[in-house]
């Protein structure tokens, strides 16, 4: 199956969720076009920059692009809870290749995204991708998470970072608005529960929500941690 067809079929499968359909359907052709263009940018620069751990186009489509979009309905509902008015501000922490920030920004055009990346070459890639895709709702911030302004974001996503350690979690919570949310992309529930146990004294309330990625027979969960 050609990558473009695989990606399109995957997006179609995600649209069985009514909330995802509501977000994608009005701009369907544009979203598909931008996602494919974004994939081509990753494939072009990946050999030099090491953006993702695969050179296989189908794996890139499924494990990275579709995985980033799969919890879109959950993220949209969270934003409706924590940001009832105004433009939601979202940070993608340790953005790397722009995952999940860029796929989410392609769909959620009513949100302002900040892609935070400490590595200069990858930050440069993000700036280039923003220009190529003409995404005016994205800002690239090169630097450490610790330098992020406090109380700034209604939602913070993170996917590339392997684990939420106490120091990192405190940094992320500091960057959240009151009542803001951290949404960490995770794999198996058992491992996610174990990771949370080391953080429970810091974060208090949490949710672990499963989500399914088209064409991927692996567990995926979104770990939700709410700021006080």
Describe, in plain words, how this protein is organized in 3D.
- By secondary structure, this protein is an alpha/beta fold.
- It has a single domain (3-226), classed as 3-Layer(aba) Sandwich (Rossmann fold), CATH 3.40.50.150.
- Helix content is 48%, strand content 19%.
- It has helices spanning 3-14, 18-24, 28-49, 57-69, 72-82, 101-107, 120-133, 166-175, 189-197, 200-203; strands spanning 89-93, 112-117, 138-142, 153-158, 176-186, 206-210, 221-226.
- Strands 3-2-1-4-5-7-6 form a seven-stranded mixed β-sheet, sandwiched between helices.
- Strand 2, helix 7 and strand 3 (138-142) form a beta-alpha-beta unit.
- Helix 3 (28-49) packs antiparallel against helix 6 and helix 3 runs antiparallel to helix 7 (120-133).
Per CATH, the superfamily is Vaccinia Virus protein VP39
CATH third-tier fold name: Rossmann fold
Q: Order the strands across the largest sheet as they lie in space.
A: 3-2-1-4-5-7-6
The biggest sheet amounts to: 7 strands, mixed
Q: Topology as H/E string?
A: HHHHHEHEHEEHEHHEE
Low-confidence stretches: none
Total number of helices: 10
> Could you say which overall geometry the principal axes of the C-alpha atoms support?
globular
What is the CATH architecture assignment? 3-Layer(aba) Sandwich
The number of E-state strands comes to 7
Please state roughly what percent of the residues sit in beta strands, choosing from under 5%, 5-15%, 15-25%, 25-35%, 35-45% or over 45%: 15-25%
């Amino acid at each position: 199956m050609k990558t473009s067809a695989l990606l399109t079929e995957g997006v179609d499968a995600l649209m069985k969720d009514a909330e995802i359909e509501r977000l994608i359907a009005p701009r369907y052709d544009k979203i598909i076009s931008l996602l494919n263009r974004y994939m081509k940018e990753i494939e072009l620069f990946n050999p030099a920059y090491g953006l993702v751990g695969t050179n296989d186009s189908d794996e890139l489509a499924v494990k990275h692009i579709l995985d980033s979009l799969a919890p879109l309905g959950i993220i949209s509902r969270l934003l409706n809870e924590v940001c009832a008015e105004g433009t939601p501000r979202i940070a993608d922490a340790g953005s790397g290749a722009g995952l999940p920030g860029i796929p989410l920004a392609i769909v959620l055009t009513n949100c302002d995204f900040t892609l935070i990346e400490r590595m200069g070459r990858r930050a440069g890639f993000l700036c280039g991708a923003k220009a190529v895709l003409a995404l005016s709702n994205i800002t690239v911030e090169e630097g450490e998470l610790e330098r992020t302004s406090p109380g700034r974001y209604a939602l913070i996503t993170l996917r590339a970072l392997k684990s939420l350690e106490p120091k990192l979690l405190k940094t992320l919570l500091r960057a959240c608005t009151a009542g803001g949310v951290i949404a960490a992309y995770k794999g198996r529930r058992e491992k996610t529960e174990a990771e949370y146990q080391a953080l429970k004294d810091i974060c208090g309330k949490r949710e672990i929500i499963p989500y399914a990625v088209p064409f991927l027979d692996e567990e995926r969960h979104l770990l939700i941690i709410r700021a006080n």
